Amino acid sequence: MTTKINNIIEELKSLTLLEAVELVKQIEETFEVDASSVGNSGMVMMPAASDVSDSTVVSEKTEFDVILEEFPAAKKIAILKVVRSITGLGLKEAKDLVESVPKALKEGVSKEEAEEIKSKLDEAGAKIVIT
């Protein structure tokens, strides 16, 4: 290393923790970098362009469909009761829906609601798929 770099290293060693934090802030502002994105690589990454394309952003799925796949015939009445309470359908509509499996019971619901519906129908004996 050159003497200039050695001198800088020696100066850095003598900094207090508060001075080091202030130095990092100044470096980030001056060179438009983010020290928190360094990770274990030891390299400073330049900030990404402000117009990030949508294809690079990974989004978490927030809406789910609850699908009734199948059910045992002996449990049909219990499943009809649960389907009616979940969907608000009348007896005939719920019966038609249950008899036309596989069929979506609810579409576009939250993950929590989908899991709750699945657990209710599992208890009644139905096979449910969340997509």
UniProtKB/TrEMBL annotation:
GO terms for biological process: translation. GO terms for molecular function: mRNA binding; structural constituent of ribosome. It comes from the Eukaryota. SUPFAM superfamilies: ClpS-like (SSF54736), Ribosomal protein L7/12, oligomerisation (N-terminal) domain (SSF48300). InterPro entries: Ribosomal_bL12 (IPR000206), Ribosomal_bL12_C (IPR013823), Ribosomal_bL12_C/ClpS-like (IPR014719), Ribosomal_bL12_oligo (IPR008932), Ribosomal_bL12_oligo_N_sf (IPR036235). Belongs to the bacterial ribosomal protein bL12 family. This is 50S ribosomal protein L12, chloroplastic. It comes from Gastroclonium compressum.
